[in-house]
Design brief:
Layout: H1 2-7, E1 20-22, E2 28-30, H2 31-43, E3 52-55, E4 62-65, H3 77-89, E5 107-109, E6 114-116, H4 118-122, E7 131-132, H5 134-141, H6 144-153, H7 156-188, H8 197-243, H9 248-267, E8 277-279, H10 282-290, H11 295-300, E9 307-309, H12 311-316, H13 325-349, H14 351-374, H15 385-400
Antiparallel strand pairs: 1-2, 3-4, 5-6, 5-7, 8-9
Helix pairs in contact: 5-9, 6-8, 6-9, 7-8, 8-9, 13-14, 14-15
């Protein structure tokens, strides 16, 4: 049947003969094709009057046509009858071109990936396009979907799953840090729930803000990775479905669409998963900033801003250590007191030599004791107010003495 269709095809338009006409050289062509050839031949040649030249597209011989042109050529009635019978008996009947009526779509355009007719190739919008036989193109592309799917299953899937698992682990680790901080805050405020309810609420709000920041950091990454996983699974399923397609044109179109989607997925970079640290840590902040203060001072202490940051930022945003000036003042006061006692002992044996030194030391000790009494609220862990007053009284007695 394919050989018969080839014999019934015009060598100019590559379609079944339409109104076949016979030239004097015995070659047959479509009347419309001969009209186009006659127009080209007549425009570039000089011939004697009342005669129209025509060059045969097959044998290249020049024949003379009457003034009426191609219309005067005899019709190939037998060939026309054979073509009509062939069109009736052939099944399935090939589709016809929507732009050129009665012209079958029997040529595959490689550039546009669709079936076209002979007129589309010669005078239509597909002039100059590469063409091929539909079955040959199908044989060449057969198995392309399996090769595309194989590219997806090489190492991409394992890397995608590993990246998603790492993101889940990092999020769980950061959430664990937040849970530990919540426990530290709860332990610190356990006995002060009535008076410290406002502080507890403020600290919880800071942790909630850090948790929201953590969600903003990891949720887009997880959603993107989830979408890429779903897209890859869908492509794997679509690739198997394409291989089951039996219609040649539909198969080629689906393979092209699958190829574009696979290339787009392969070109999409995987998102980076960066570990986050919670800073400052609540337990360290409470121990350094709030553990040694009174209730009245705690009301004035601000709640820190807790944030999720990377390692470099974590080192920069570490909370500053507590000031040690009151402790240094206490140590200096104790040292001066010991020096004053030694001078008093020395005054017994050498009153003239140490008298002025004892007076100067007593005066300095009295001044330090007065300053220490003013700072007693921040020095509860090292020295009480009573001890400071006691030291100041001793210094004044020694000074008067």
């Amino acid at each position: 049947m394919d050989d018969l269709e080839e014999d019934l095809t015009c060598s100019v338009c590559y379609s079944l003969f339409c109104d076949p006409r016979v030239l004097p050289c015995s070659h047959t062509f479509c009347k419309a094709c001969l009209d186009n050839v006659q127009q080209v031949s007549g425009a570039f040649s000089t011939w004697r009057l009342l005669r129209v030249p025509l060059k045969c597209p097959n044998c290249r011989s020049v024949v003379e046509l009457p003034p009426t042109g191609v219309e005067a050529l005899p019709a190939n009635v037998s060939l026309r009858a054979i073509i009509e019978k062939y069109q009736r008996d052939s099944w399935p009947r090939p589709p016809f071109c929507p732009q050129h009526p009665l012209q079958p779509l029997n040529v595959y355009c490689v550039q546009d990936r669709q079936l076209i007719c002979g007129l589309c190739l010669t005078v239509g919008g597909h002039q100059g396009h590469a063409i091929d036989d539909l079955q040959a193109a199908l044989a060449r592309e057969r198995g392309a979907a399996a090769r595309l799917v194989e590219r997806l299953t090489d190492g991409r899937w394992a890397e995608l799953c590993a990246r998603a698992e790492r993101a889940e682990q990092e999020r769980a680790r950061a959430e664990g840090q937040l849970r530990q901080d919540r426990e530290a805050v709860a332990r610190f405020f356990q006995g002060l729930e009535q008076t410290l309810a406002r502080k507890r609420h403020a600290f919880s709000a800071a942790l909630d803000a850090a948790e929201a920041e953590l969600g903003r950091e990891y949720e887009p990454i997880l959603e993107r990775l989830k979408g890429m996983k779903e897209e890859q699974l869908e492509l794997l399923s679509d690739g198997a479905a394409v291989e089951e397609e039996e219609a040649p044109l539909a198969y080629l179109q689906k393979v092209h669409a699958l190829r574009e989607r696979v290339e787009a997925l392969m070109d999409t970079p995987l998102p980076q998963v960066r570990p986050l640290c919670v800073c400052p840590r609540a337990a360290d902040f409470l121990e350094q900033q709030w553990a040694g203060v009174t209730l009245s001072e705690l009301e004035q202490r601000p709640v820190p801003r807790i944030a999720c940051c990377h390692d470099s930022r974590h080192r920069k945003e570490a909370p500053p250590p507590c000031p040690e000036a009151p402790h240094l003042s206490a140590a200096l006061l104790i040292g001066l007191l010991a020096l004053l006692i030694s001078l008093c002992l020395g005054l017994i044996g050498f009153p003239q030599v140490f008298e002025q030194a004892v007076r100067d030391a007593a005066l300095c000790l009295a001044s330090l004791a007065a300053n220490l009494q003013l700072q007693s609220t921040s020095l509860l862990s090292s020295l009480s107010d009573t001890a400071a007053q006691y030291l100041a009284s001793i210094a004044e007695i020694l000074f008067v003495w």
